[in-house]
Amino acid sequence: MNPFLLACLWLGVAQALFARERGWNTVRKRSANDQEDFFPFPANRSSNLSLSTPPKELPQKEVSLDLTRHSKTARIRRHFIEKNCTREKRANIIEAWGSAKKMAKAQTDFRPGYDYNTPHTQWLGKDWNSEPSWIPWKWNYRKLIGDNFRRVEQLFGHDAPTGHQIYWYCYDYGDACHDDKNGVGPAAYSWDRQGDDTFNHLTVFCDDFHSLLEKTIDKLRRWEDAPPHQKIMQRFQGGRGSVMLHEIYHYKHLASNPRTKDFAYYSQACWDLAKDQGTSTAFVNADSYALDALAIYVQQYYKSSMAPVPFNELLKIDPEAAAAIFKKDVEPSDPPMINSSTQSFETTPPNWTGPLVDDDDPEPSVWTELDLDNESSDDPAPSPSPKPSPSPKPSSSSKPSPSPKPSSGPSPVKDENACHGISGDYWVMSRDVALDNVEDFCSQSDKAKTYNTDSVNELELSVKNLNDNSKSPKDSPDCVGRFRGAVLDGCDGADPLNNPHDYKFGSTLTTADGWEYEMTPLSKQVNEVNCDVSYKFLFDHFEVRGKNFPNAKLGAEGGGLHEELKGCGALTKWNFERTPDDCCFQWYASGTLPVGTRACVGRAVMSAGGSGDGNCHGSGKRDGNSSSSIDSWPGYGDDGKHVFRNNVAESR
């Protein structure tokens, strides 16, 4: 054989084996942590070999960075925000980080049974999970995307690489927050900068980020009771959390490698990018990653049958849902396109006049270090201060920081307590935990603070003076007493009929002396039901087990369920009891009904507050392995588990 051809063949085989080994190592590392293979998912590969090449702007081989010079402080990664940020802007940025963290967790965690392949294919292209190729110039997308996911997971966790620091600005020192002809400007822009001992990632949050964008959680709650809208990505894109995650995916080597660019924005354009140009372009588009994470997060939040897609795609996938929206609403659409040239910079923006950092110890008079793992800063937020001295070339689009204003109208003549009500899906399970949070909150200076993140007791507390925006909880008269007497116990306490377990739904208390106290539960409680209806010759015997039904619908000792079941026919041998020793449910009900009522039992369970019919459509035994993920949440298992003491068996 020709020696030249033999050498080429040998090099091709060696390269293929090396690429496959790298891909195997990626799988192996993830598998060791999760006991399950995160990569590969069931791949949706093209039926023919794609020879697509990356966009010409990208390097033609994987880039690495030597970070052997670690930070002197040996911190895993550090976050800083400029001291000139107002309290409001600072709070918006920290809240956005928390939302981005939840989205990233949905994207990078492994949830058994969830079909990750569908959203990944929709937003990152059909070859996102393709096998390594023997073709030297073809990218190993599985490894590259998997490594990006791993880095983002580590960034929000506790094992991000050393030598990286993040800096957030509130003012447009780069003169890049320009509005276009439609009056729409960028929400943020980012770049990377090599320091003396660190690799720094810098983001400017424009005025539109604070004044025009919503919290991601507000978008989710708006469509809580509208399932057709839960399938439309336009309903959820563009929140502060999505913008934060978009910018994070620009952080080179800390999140993405190669560094992502901005080839497309918003759902329809990114969908078309993945479909028409494929993974070769989508895997280096920042908004594709952000929308992929948002799609998974929204679907898991609502427990819906599909992840949200652009409205025009929903017309093809689920015409019935799209038609239901057309009857009442204007067709959803993407916002006007943002000027992409100002969104991402490879290096410091050319017009930059603000402070920069070149070492691992930034100037303390300019920067405040944040402790985002605890969702609060190391020191109290600074008072609002004016924008620094104008730069030689002032930004034409930057707007001065607004002066503090009272956020509400005049104080009421007497105290007013607006209760949230006890029929919703959001509540705090433990009053004692909530009271501990109140005592901590009232002793510090932040006007709003989130506690018990990712647990069944997650809540937000806030206090403000309606006449003086500079006042904090420490300045409030009898802060703990007012929270305890009105917000915690003034609405849903001492109600053995509708709220026998003293769950806390929260309220907003406005006092005559001009203070506002609010508690907002943030954890949607998992409502679960298991049901069995079996034929017993002359009648049907039913058994129902449930957890977290709204007490106003379930009724004291199951009275609401009892009334609903009576509508199915003659109800006999009724029994209801609390089940504190059950691993997975809080109560048990049983009885007999006329033959052929199994579907009616399912409808009765739903009318009494169940999230579904609990499989009430035939005979069979309860699945002993069924359990809800809520049981493993912080605050629910062990000492935090809500134990019912009043077991009863009742006949009617």
TrEMBL record:
Residues 330-418, 610-641 are annotated as: Disordered. One of its GO terms (molecular function) is metallopeptidase activity. Residues 1-16 form the signal peptide. Residues 338-351 have a biased composition (Polar residues). It comes from Cladosporium halotolerans. The keyword Signal applies. This is Metalloproteases (Zincins), catalytic. Keywords: Signal. Residues 381-393 have a biased composition (Pro residues).
